């Protein structure tokens, strides 16, 4: 969104009375809803443990490009109104309109747009971007905006507490209201006197840890009073507080209590009936460390703990001993994390107003006390062009569009307390971020823990924040800077220059990151120039949040800054049932790395069988790093996570929600190294998690403790398939076909439920060798189908086989075939597999392909007639098995908006579909699928809503089954 007048930029800004909004994706005169195909779906959600139906709404309307999982989570989480009543939302159109029309109306009322046409373009661009999963607002926006409820748009809150009973009790109350609304809050308790100091009455103070107990009980009570997740909260204590050792060891001691109670037979799983007897389990704890303390750790010198009121040193401690206690506690129970105080405040744009003392529960939002932040995240894979280049120009435009909408929301937003509302309206803190970084890096052949991966991540993050502050400065020239800017102008400009200097220090390695970095450099130059003239509309612009539930809404493969969770994923099907699929990014990455179709096919099959790339046939060891994940055989090393955080941190207003995972064998010294390097590399916050360090993490059903396994003799159970024969009389359908002039007949017989159970092929004359071979082949396939071999497995194996006769067919749905086998199994897929399963394999009817062409799904590099394009695309799809493509932005070459048939089927690999195969009925998530490959339980909680094992998302957990999170995201 830019001004296009010929006058100088300064003259343009002086004359402008509102934003002139540029079209990015939309077409004049065409509403975004009219460019997609809509379908009705039934959303039924069950708790797989109890069999109880926990949600049911039939006939909901979504684009056919949205996955079943995305539509399920949006329906259950975000549709408003009582189910079964006319007031209940039943279409994505209603949800998007409820939000977007509120934003557009508020923008007009508050003078953001130059004309009504600009307001309409803004409305359509926002609608298009949400409809095509280009970005998403945080959950409170979807919950509240446009409803009769208070218009709360923020997910992150920071509170404050002083050293008085009134303030402490007010803390409890404010936190309770925030938890009741499903959000989270953080605060620093360091103003409260320690248990080593005296009260004015002469008695000894209770200390902050004592008051933490009451707040923890309150959070637990509100959770048990009806919430479906634990209350999300963060408690911070300064490292120089006299009670710091008690604070550090609090949760570790409770973990010892959990072990003792578990061994005594009590149910101590997370959500278990006895876990409530344990204290301090509802908060994340962090120690706020200073440069002075960290230098004392390096030097081995002493460090002073200070009285809260006078500031005098009341106790000297050995810095290394205290640091060791922090590391040991984190080793034992993952708490506390660290927040690096001097780094945080060195990047603070409002130091004249007050210091930053705390964060939200997930540690990405760091700002003034009694403040809030609303978040939004961009889906990075939406900006990856067909030629594997990143569309930096469109990315910048979308960032400017989204940051505009986020700022508008503050004009009409409601807040849980008056002080939070005042601070937010005065400083207008925003938190734009992104998701799918891990998937983007893999798709483009970059290792997550590589110089190239970090350079690309740094450049993208720099462009995101630079574009956001550029738009913030432009908005300041239209609707004014934030109220607190004048007193903080010099500091704010200083931080902008620090961001610009960090951008200049990025060393790019290839054409992709160089292009992105070029845009970022221009954006930061504009920030300095326009900001010097106008000031800024927002004190903060960017964070990297967990993107848990909204990540599923956008059909993202990876959350926030995280790498991919695993190479094999759990996938629900529209027609019921489920399967495991190899990460759809893998074939594209292999193609990018130069592998041929046959090699890609073999590597993908190896991954499907083993869950990792080690010893995959033909895969070069130097390429292993591209496929490293958060979990599994080649899990990314802890310092790989720290280095990626350090690459992005200089370009964020806030911090990064991320936990650095360490193996169970990690030592206290390993954790100390991570904490030290995080400080040296300039992170603002860091949390670690050592596998299996917590007792209160439930294992999947059927998992036994090692003690139990050792005590019982091993039982070997052999499972044999059972043949399900077809009835004597069954329905069948015969299809005549011709491939390159060779004629044949395909007869397919089905069970009563319509499922394929047999096939017969007739090609040659009776008695010929070919006819005999076809009879034997048909019998073998039929018997396999009757023993339960999925048809999709046969389709995967026999499509793309190349041998003569090959060429044109007489079937309008399969115009080209590489062989008779290729044709036969494509025809069977079209006749007997559901659309979503076929989409993984790149198999579509003529009607589906025509619809894709009409909506711009495919964009050939050269101009051609519609017929030539259709023929070319059919040939391409049949010869290399390309699957349907993701929603993408307008390519600069064609200017056409691309949309997808199936967002998850993004192979574009030239190797056919990624391997898809049935999974055990006992597996309900990717975390449980990873357990099967690893042979051990994943260290994650069960979802309290649907019973599915959750997976990490930043410093929280998210449920693939229903979208619930364990934190504030």
TrEMBL record:
Molecular-function GO term, any one: cobalt ion binding
Region Disordered: start-end pairs: 851-919
Cofactor annotation: adenosylcob(III)alamin
N-terminal signal peptide: none
Domain named Ribonucleotide reductase large subunit C-terminal: residues: 154-689
Pfam families: Ribonuc_red_2_N, Ribonuc_red_lgC, TSCPD
TSCPD domain ranges (all copies): 720-830
Composition bias type Acidic residues, residue spans: 863-874
UniProt EC number: 1.17.4.1
Family that this chain belongs to: Belongs to the ribonucleoside diphosphate reductase class-2 family.
Function recorded in the entry: Catalyzes the reduction of ribonucleotides to deoxyribonucleotides. May function to provide a pool of deoxyribonucleotide precursors for DNA repair during oxygen limitation and/or for immediate growth after restoration of oxygen.
Protein known as: Vitamin B12-dependent ribonucleotide reductase
Protein source organism: Flexivirga endophytica
């Amino acid at each position: 969104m830019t001004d296009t007048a010929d006058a100088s930029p300064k003259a343009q800004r002086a004359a402008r009375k509102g934003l002139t909004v540029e079209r990015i994706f939309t077409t004049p005169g065409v509403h975004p809803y009219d460019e997609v195909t809509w379908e009705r779906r039934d959303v039924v959600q069950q708790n797989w443990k109890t069999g109880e139906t926990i949600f049911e709404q039939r006939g909901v309307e979504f684009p056919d490009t949205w996955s079943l999982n995305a539509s399920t989570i949006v329906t259950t989480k975000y549709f408003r109104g009582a189910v079964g009543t006319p007031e209940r939302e039943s279409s994505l159109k209603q949800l998007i309109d409820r939000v977007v029309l509120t934003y557009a109306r508020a923008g007009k009322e508050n003078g953001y747009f130059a004309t009504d046409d600009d307001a309409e373009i803004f409305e359509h661009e926002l609608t298009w971007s949400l409809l095509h999963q280009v970005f998403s607002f945080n959950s409170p926006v979807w919950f509240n905006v446009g409803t009769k409820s208070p218009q709360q748009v923020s997910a992150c809150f920071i509170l404050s507490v002083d050293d008085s009973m009134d303030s402490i009790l007010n803390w409890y109350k404010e936190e309770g209201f925030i938890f009741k609304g499903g959000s989270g809050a953080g605060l620093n308790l360091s103003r409260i006197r320690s248990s080593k100091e005296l009260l004015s009455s002469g008695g000894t103070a209770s200390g902050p840890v004592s008051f933490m107990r009451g707040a923890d009980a309150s959070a637990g009570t509100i959770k048990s009073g009806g919430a479906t997740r634990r209350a999300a909260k963060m408690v911070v204590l300064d490292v120089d507080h006299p009670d710091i050792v008690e604070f550090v060891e609090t949760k570790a001691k409770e973990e010892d209590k959990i072990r003792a109670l578990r061994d005594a037979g009590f149910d101590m799983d997370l959500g278990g009936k006895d876990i409530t007897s344990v204290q301090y389990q509802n908060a994340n704890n962090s120690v706020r460390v200073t440069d002075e303390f960290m230098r004392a750790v390096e030097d081995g010198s002493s460090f002073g703990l200070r009285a809260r009121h006078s500031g005098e040193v009341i106790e000297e401690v050995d810095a290394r001993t205290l640091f060791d206690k922090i590391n040991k506690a984190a080793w034992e129970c993952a708490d506390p994390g660290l927040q690096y105080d001097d780094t945080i405040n060195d990047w603070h744009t409002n130091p004249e107003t007050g210091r930053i003392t705390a964060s939200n529960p997930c540690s990405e939002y760091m700002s003034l006390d009694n403040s809030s932040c609303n978040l939004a995240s961009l889906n990075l894979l939406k900006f990856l062009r067909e030629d594997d280049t990143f569309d930096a120009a469109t990315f910048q435009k979308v960032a400017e569009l989204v940051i505009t909408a986020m700022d508008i929301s503050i004009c009409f937003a409601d807040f849980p307390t008056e002080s939070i509302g005042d601070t937010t309206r005065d400083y207008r803190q925003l938190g734009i971020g992104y998701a799918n970084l891990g998937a983007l890096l893999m798709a483009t052949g970059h290792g997550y823990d590589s110089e190239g991966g970090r350079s690309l991540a740094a450049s993208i993050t720099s462009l995101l924040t630079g574009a956001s502050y550029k738009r913030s400065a432009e908005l300041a020239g239209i609707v004014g800077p934030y109220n607190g800017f004048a007193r903080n102008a010099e500091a704010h400009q200083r931080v902008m220059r620090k961001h610009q200097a960090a951008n200049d220090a990025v060393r790019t390695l290839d054409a992709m990151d160089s292009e992105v970095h070029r845009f970022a450099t221009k954006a930061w130059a504009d920030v300095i120039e326009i900001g010097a003239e106008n000031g800024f509309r927002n004190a903060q612009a960017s964070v990297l949040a967990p993107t848990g539930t909204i990540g599923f809404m956008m059909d993202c493969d990876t959350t926030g800054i995280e790498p991919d969770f695993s190479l094999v994923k759990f996938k629900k099907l529209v027609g019921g049932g489920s399967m495991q699929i190899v990460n759809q990014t893998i074939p594209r990455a292999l193609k990018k790395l130069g592998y041929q179709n046959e090699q890609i096919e073999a590597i993908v099959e190896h991954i499907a069988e083993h869950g990792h790339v080690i010893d995959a046939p033909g895969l070069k060891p130097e390429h292993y790093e591209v496929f490293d994940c958060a979990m599994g055989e080649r899990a990314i090393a802890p310092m790989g996570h720290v280095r990626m955080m350090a690459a992005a941190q200089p370009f964020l207003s806030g911090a990064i929600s991320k936990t650095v995972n360490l193996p169970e064998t990690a030592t206290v010294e390993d954790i100390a190294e991570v904490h030290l390097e995080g400080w040296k590399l300039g992170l603002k916050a860091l949390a670690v998690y050592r596998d299996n360090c917590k007792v209160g993490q439930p294992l999947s059903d059927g998992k036994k403790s090692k003690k139990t396994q050792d005590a019982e003799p091993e039982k070997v159970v052999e499972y044999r398939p059972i043949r399900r024969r077809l009835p004597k009389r069954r329905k069948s359908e015969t299809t005549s076909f011709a491939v390159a002039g060779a004629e044949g007949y395909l007869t397919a017989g089905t069970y009563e439920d319509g499922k394929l159970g047999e096939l017969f092929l007739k090609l040659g004359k009776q008695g010929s060798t070919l006819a005999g071979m076809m009879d034997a082949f048909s019998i073998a396939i039929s018997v396999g189908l009757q023993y339960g071999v999925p048809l999709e497995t046969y389709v995967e194996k026999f499509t793309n086989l190349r041998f003569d006769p090959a060429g044109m067919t007489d079937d309008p749905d399969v115009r080209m075939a590489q062989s008779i086998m290729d044709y036969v199994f494509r025809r069977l897929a079209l006749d007997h597999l559901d659309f979503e399963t076929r989409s993984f394999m790149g198999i579509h009817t003529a009607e589906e392909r025509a619809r894709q062409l009409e909506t711009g799904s495919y964009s050939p590099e050269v101009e051609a007639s519609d017929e030539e394009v259709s023929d070319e695309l059919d040939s391409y799809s049949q010869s290399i098995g390309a699957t349907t493509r993701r929603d993408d932005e307008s390519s600069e070459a064609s200017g056409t908006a691309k949309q997808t048939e199936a967002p998850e089927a993004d192979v574009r690999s030239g190797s056919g579909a990624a391997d898809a195969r049935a999974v055990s009925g006992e597996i309900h998530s990717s975390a449980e699928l990873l357990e099967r490959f690893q042979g051990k339980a994943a260290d994650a909680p069960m979802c309290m809503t649907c019973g599915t094992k959750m997976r990490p998302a930043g410093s929280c957990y998210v449920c693939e089954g229903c979208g619930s999170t364990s934190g504030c995201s």
